[in-house]
Amino acid sequence: MFRAVSLAPQAPAAEWLVLLDGALKRSPTLFDDKAVILDLADLQPSATELESLIAELTTRRLRILGIEGLDAALPSNLPPRLVGGRPHGDTLEAPAGPEDKPGVSSLTIEGSVRSGQSIVHPEGDVTVMGSVSSGAEILAGGSIHVYGALRGRAIAGAARNPRARIYCRKFEPELLGIDRLVRTAEDMGTHLRGQAVQIWSDGGAIKIAALG
């Protein structure tokens, strides 16, 4: 089992690439040292369109480990088809019964997450008692709670959980993600900067509001 990031392009692909470029401009190391699974369930490109898309991603230094969600046959010169992917941490065996199914866990970070650190916990919520520095990353299958400043990247609902939320006491992030939705700092404005906020997904968009 290897850990990989799932990337799900949306149509039109050209506009999606513009959004990706915005995220990479703000966070150039976003995909550094990360293998990428290309989830094409929503895009369903033709063979020619897929080759063009992979070429575009390659120029952005994204390493495509495999492809999932595509109904059509894959050309032999492209990364392999992957089937039955699971969030990291799931077991391959089916549970013998309800009593054997592992419960959702939570992870608590007692201090702060420093620049360059990456906290990945796809099984449940992540709580950071301190701050998340610029250049740091939190990825959680559930919600993310930051009791200090959120200055790095926070991606909640990574196990395809659109009900996940992000909470922080001081709002200064580089990038936010809920399920498959992403917003960069340029898209957030400055009216809530420095405030305590909550972030959630609603109707296919990321919403941000002040807390209390």
UniProtKB/TrEMBL annotation:
Alphabetical list of InterPro entries matching this protein: CAP/MinC_C, MinC, MinC_C_sf, Septum_form_inhib_MinC_C
Disordered: annotated segments: 78-103
Homology family: Belongs to the MinC family.
Septum formation inhibitor MinC C-terminal domain span: 109-208
Keywords, comma-separated and alphabetical: Cell cycle, Cell division, Septation
Assembly and oligomerization: Interacts with MinD and FtsZ.
Name used for this protein in its record: Probable septum site-determining protein MinC
HAMAP family: MinC (MF_00267)
